[in-house]
Backbone:
């Protein structure tokens, strides 16, 4: 299986901050990398697919970059509704493994 | 409108069998892979497996191979996740999801989740 490692595992930030979450794959996955936001009691929500493509309806303050093994999710200016857990996922080869998650909390 | 509607919460005893469902609507069910994702209490998301209803091609994560069975009935646009003998460690929220409009086999539509509680 391809292992996905996110950092940090948790993060405290304030409204208006710029935040970056990183994701590293254990082998090259080209740009088959997706990012999800998950809030308690809700289904996960796709934010970014193919490493840098913004899912329809997702605010432009979310962006993704990277290829090969190293990827980043950036939130340019945190809004109150952004606090959640974020997951990366590789969809290069099955099993399409998730990272362990990054819990973004309000400072 | 694409929708995935999952069956309701279940409370079971260890050793019992269980089959939960995920009904798709608003799209051609047979033509899109449908996957299952587990979230154990306080833990992260785990990709369990995926099925193509058109021909029942199924891929499992090695972590779940032999532990669950994924199936689909395209005649009623429903996918299933089943256990033959539940364990307490199967207690979790289970989501179905499909890679529909976005690329990269990402899950852009999700069911609402089915909470499975296994307790004696």
Residues:
């Amino acid at each position: 299986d391809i292992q996905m490692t996110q950092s940090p595992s948790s993060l405290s930030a304030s409204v208006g901050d710029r935040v970056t979450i990183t994701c590293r794959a254990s082998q090259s996955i080209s740009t088959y990398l997706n990012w999800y936001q998950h809030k308690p009691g809700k289904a996960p929500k796709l934010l970014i697919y193919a490493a840098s493509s913004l899912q329809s309806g997702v605010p432009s303050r979310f962006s993704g970059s990277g290829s090969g093994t190293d990827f980043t999710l950036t939130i340019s200016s945190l809004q109150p509704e952004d606090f959640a857990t974020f997951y990366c996922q590789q969809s290069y080869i099955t099993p399409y493994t998730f990272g362990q998650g990054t819990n973004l909390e309000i400072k | 409108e694409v929708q995935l509607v999952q069956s309701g919460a279940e409370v079971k005893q260890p050793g019992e069998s269980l089959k939960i469902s995920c009904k798709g609507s608003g799209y051609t069910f047979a033509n899109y892979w449908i996957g299952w994702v587990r979230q154990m209490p306080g833990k992260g998301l785990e990709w369990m497996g995926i099925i193509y209803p058109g021909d029942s091609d199924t891929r499992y994560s090695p972590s779940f191979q032999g532990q669950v069975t994924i199936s689909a009935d395209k005649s009623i646009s429903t996918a299933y996740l089943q256990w033959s003998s539940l364990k307490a460690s199967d207690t979790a929220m289970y989501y179905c999801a499909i890679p529909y409009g976005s690329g990269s086999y990402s899950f852009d539509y999700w069911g609402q989740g089915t909470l499975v509680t296994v307790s004696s």
In short: Residues 5 and 75 of chain A are 19 Å apart (CA to CA). Chain A touches chain B through 29 residues (CB under 8 Å).
